[in-house]
Amino acid sequence: MRKAFIRNIAEVEWKEFPAHHGGALSKPLVAADNSDARLIDHRISCYQPMAYVERHAHKVQEQVYHVLEGEGLMEIAGEKRVVRRHDVIFIPPGIEHAISNTGLVDLVFLVITTPMTDE
């Protein structure tokens, strides 16, 4: 039987995942390694000024980014656009993308990914 839970964000440690640089930190709030989740990965990320994730694409994963604070530069399929509070970004599988904090304060955003079968 799968297990439900309530977890406070403060219970989860910040991590700098591979290909993330300069203070591009994330808290994996719901992930395969800390829950019974099979079809979703939910993180909150906090990128310090000049932090970024390298350009990459996922084979089968869909992703949603939801910017909560700050501003940065989102690159999707070679096109760059400023993103800021309340912007929601959808990335289908196979599309190269990257995000960086080009602002003056921390860039804070949610990342929701499904399924978690490739990386």
TrEMBL record:
PANTHER family: CUPIN TYPE-2 DOMAIN-CONTAINING PROTEIN (PTHR35848:SF6), OXALATE-BINDING PROTEIN (PTHR35848). It comes from the Bacteria. Pfam families: Cupin_2. It comes from Thalassobaculum fulvum. Residues 45-112 form the Cupin type-2 domain. GO terms for molecular function: metal ion binding. This is Cupin type-2 domain-containing protein. Keywords: Metal-binding. InterPro entries: Cupin_2, GPI/OXD, RmlC-like_jellyroll, RmlC_Cupin_sf.
